[in-house]
Amino acid sequence: MTRQIILGAHFPGVNNTTVWSDPAAGSQIDFASFVHLARTAERGRFDFFFLAEGLRLREQRGRIHDLDVAGRPETFTVLAALAAVTEHLGLAGTLTATYNEPYEVARKLATLDHLSGGRAAWNVVTSPDAFTGANFRRGGYLDPALRYERAREFVAAARALWDSWPADPFDTSDFLRTPDAGRYAVRSTHFDIAGQFTVPRSPQHHPVVLQAGDSDGGRDLAASTADGIFSRHGEYDDAAAFAADLTSRLARYGRSRDELKILPGVSVVLADTDAEAQEKAHLIRRAQVSPQTAILLLEQVWNTDLSQYDPDGPLPAEDPDDTAPSIIQGRTRQRDDRVATARRWRDLAEARGLSIRDLIIEVTGRQAFVGTPDRVATEMIRYVEDRATDGFILVPHLTPTGLDEFVDTVVPLLQERGALRTEYEPGTLRDRLGLPPVPADRRGAA
């Protein structure tokens, strides 16, 4: 039997890959844009719709990245509104464990799970920089080890709150006979909270927990706590290696491979022939990496002002100064060894005759399935059949119509080959993803 592909739909915006200059691009704030993408995903029998969240626009040398989104409404308000205009689609949103508190997040997610009939999911992230922290009273930021420690305790605290209500459906008339419903106490390094949780047990008991870290700490956090992990490892060999690494980590926590769904973010470029698709993909990547963006991304490695360089010219000949303070605002340092990265990039550029812009296009692109619908469907099925992944998060370059062609041309092929449902079955998002149910008798896990 063909393995079922999990599909998530990412709403474009919190990145610098959306092509806002395309005449077909629409608003990232108008609710109609969210509705179009969500309903398209549901028409394609996707598993869930995903909203990332950026808490501050990225800056470099005081300038906002020219291709970044200008703004984004608050995630869970949008998801709650989408619950009313969709019927089956999962609703996943990002909330940071660094600048939120467990009670508030657990309450929002349980509420969304009730409103949507069991379709809520939470992407747990840690926020690494003081630049973002300036928006919050706490300010500052946590060291990497403490960020992941707090995130792990945060998820445990949220689950303790969800576990605090009785397993049976709760009628408010029973409250006097169950006065301890919702009572909880969480004592840990980062949290000391106790009280009464106000939202009865929701359809999934625990909303689906996703995680998007690729560092050693992020992978361990996913292996120990998450139901799914977003990955940037979309190339087949990298994806297979990533899956093998996660499988070994899961074993350390007494979990099986089926308890963690691995979902790389990918783009899809389609055309009537493979050659046409390759040309189309090339034009899209040129639009995604403007001359200014190419210089900004190069500066993140060289860690200095490179505005005097020609984006269509060669890379700097000198190595970065790895001791200088970071010039990046609003983004964690992406590469631990700048000097080694710079030398590797120079070697690649020299060997292939690449300009700065060409080099950045080469090294920053996410995995793309490029070709005819038949080729794309065949490749996606191969990844999942081989357990290199469990599915994909599709990241379109257009808002809000970026999924339309995929749903119209690739989805029918996946359905014909038995890799994707033709209709939704009854049940929650957790059921649809093939995740084990949360034990019904859990209570007071903290």
From TrEMBL:
Residues that hold FMN according to the record? T94, Y148, S215
Q: Does the keyword RNA-binding apply?
A: no
- Per UniProt, which keywords does this protein have? Flavoprotein, FMN, Monooxygenase, Oxidoreductase
Q: Which CDD domains match?
A: Nitrilotriacetate_monoxgenase
This entry's Gene Ontology molecular function terms read:
monooxygenase activity; oxidoreductase activity, acting on paired donors, with incorporation or reduction of molecular oxygen
Q: What domain of life? A: Bacteria
Q: Report domain Luciferase-like positions.
A: 22-388
Q: For the region Disordered, what residue ranges are annotated?
A: 308-333
Q: Could you say which protein family the record assigns here?
A: Belongs to the NtaA/SnaA/DszA monooxygenase family.
The name of this protein is Nitrilotriacetate monooxygenase component A
